[in-house]
Every structure is written in C-alpha cells, then in structure tokens.
Amino acid sequence: MMRLLASTVAAQCGLAIRITKTTSALSFCVQSPVASAVRLRSMCSSAPGAKEGRLQVGASTVHFVEAGDGNRGVILLPGALGTAWTDFKPQIEGLPALLPHHRVIAWDPPGYGKSRPPDKEFTVDFYERDAAAAGELMQKLGFQRYSVVGWSDGGITGLVLAAKQPEKVEKLVVWGSNSYISDTEANIYEGIRDVSKWSARMREPMEQVYGVDHFPKLWSAWVDGLLRIHHERKGDICSGSLKHIKAPTLVVHGAKDPMIIPDHVPYLLNNIKNTDLHVFPDGKHNIHLRYANEFNAIVAKFLLE
C-alpha cells in the first residue's frame, strides 16, 4: 500500500494547465445491430484473434471487442466519447499475450461509437449508469468477478463500479481520472467546448466516429453534463464513495498530464484503502498509447500479482 502527501505528487506533477486531446488511429468494421444475444466475428483490424460482438444491456445494444481465451476477465473502459478501438487498440493487441489466463473486453459505452443509437444522455448520474452497464456486460459474458482498467472518464466509471460493486471487482487500474470536479476544471471544460478551436489532428478522429456536424453537439453535451455535476452535486462525482472500494488499486499517472489538476492523484491514494502508484515522468494524458508496451507490462504485472 502506498500513501503520498499532496505536496509530493504535486511536485512530481507540477505543470501549467493546458488543453490537449489525443486519440489513436481508428479502425472500424461494419456490423448490423443485434437486439439481443451476442454475435462474434473476426475483426477487420490488425489484432489477431480479436472478435466484435453486441449484447443487449438494459435498454442499450452494447458493442464490445473481445481478445484472448482465458477464464478470467478484464474490461477496458474508454475516455469521454471514446470507443474500444479509438482508445485501446494497443491494449487489445498487446494484453492477451501478457495475460494468457484472461479474456480482454473493451467496449463502446452506451451512447458512444457503435453502441448507438441513441446518443448518450449526460445526466448527473451518467457515470453511475455506465458503471452499472459495464458490470452487467461482464456478468452476461460469464464473469462473476473481473478486473477493471479505466482511462480518464473510463477511470471514473471504474472507480464508481468498484465502489458500488466491491464484491465483483478483483483489481482496478485507473489513470487520467478524477473523483470530483474542481472550479478550475469546470473552467477548463467550458474552455474546450468549441471543437472548432482544436487542431485537426485532435478533432478529426472523433469526426470520423460521430460525423463532422454531430461531434460538436455530442461533445458540448458532455461538457454540459460535467458542469451539471459541478453545479448540482458540488462537483462530487464519486469522492464520497472511494472508501467502499476493496479491490487493490493501481493509479498510473503521467506527470505532465494537462487534463487533470495534480491534486487528484494524492486524493485517490489517500482515500482508497489499498493503492499503489506508478508515474511516467514525461507522460501526458495518453500514456497507454504513447508508452503502450511499458504500460501494458505494468498493468499485466499488477493484474497477475
């Protein structure tokens, strides 16, 4: 177990807040919707043995990718508006070899990517709704217990899931995630609302998923959702629930991450009972993409301990 003072991590993470968004290259296949039951098929991607499927979860038809043949489970939870392939291609391709006893599941959360229509509604409880859906998906795939690996918004979903269903989550890995929204971050979210101000490199991958005209609307709705949490819940996403997490938790952090204030790392470490920390000194928000091989090895080692 590791506990770090806020000043220590702040020294590691000290930075001026900037606005960036990075996403990996896209790889998509066309598949018709299925109202219920899973249909799996080989991927038209470079991930050997990976399969796509759809499964009815609550009122949503959820798209997911599955790789590996083990009897243990791990689910990868993407960031805001992210999908299995935009956010986790290196993990879908690399983790199965490192985790031969696991099946790696990556999903498009309800309302994102191929888990549409409909688009997501960003209510004040949308993280809780995503967490419940992720848990139901894993149960329907046959996992009574499983590990959770979540990035950014997906890390928040993972924190909520581990707190709400502690008996289900074996281990938890999060990075680029926060359990509350500060006033500073509320201003950041408002500042990145207008996607026309983003560089083409940052904007175009999401435009490929959602369309040039629709992506700005969905992104603005996400901003509104977070500002609603900031206003109606005084910024509390799940900070009050962290004490209920029982799973051993690994917080991975890019010391130059511009998307979260440095205070979040020590807050998670000091409010989750069994935590450890791994810092990428030059890492930013997308450490799992920028340092994919090292990141995969760190996650695999933690899950196998």
Q: Report the CATH architecture of the domain at 50-179 and 237-304.
A: 3-Layer(aba) Sandwich
Runs in which pLDDT lies below 50 for 5 or more consecutive residues are 1-46
> Could you state the order of secondary-structure elements as H and E?
HEEEEHEHEHEHHHEHEHH
Average pLDDT, all residues? 87
Please give the share of residues in helix.
Answer: 25-40%
CATH class division of the domain at 50-179 and 237-304: Alpha Beta
The name CATH uses for the topology of the domain at 50-179 and 237-304 is Rossmann fold
The global form is globular
What is the strand content?
15-25%
DSSP strand tally = 9
Major β-sheet annotation = 9 strands, mixed
What multimeric state do the chains show?
single chain
Strand order of the largest sheet: 1-2-3-5-4-6-7-8-9
The CATH superfamily of the domain at 50-179 and 237-304 is Alpha/Beta hydrolase fold, catalytic domain
Distance between the termini: 14 Å
The number of helical elements comes to 10
Q: State Rg.
A: 18 Å
Describe this structure as you would to a colleague.
It holds the Pfam family Abhydrolase_1. It comes from Anopheles merus (Mosquito). InterPro entries: AB_hydrolase_1 (IPR000073), AB_hydrolase_fold (IPR029058). This is AB hydrolase-1 domain-containing protein. GO terms for molecular function: serine hydrolase activity. Helix 2 crosses helix 10. The protein has a 9-stranded mixed β-sheet with strand order 1-2-3-5-4-6-7-8-9, with helices on both faces. It contains 10 helices and 9 strands. It has a domain of 198 residues: Rossmann fold. The longest helix has 19 residues. With 305 residues, the protein is an alpha/beta fold.
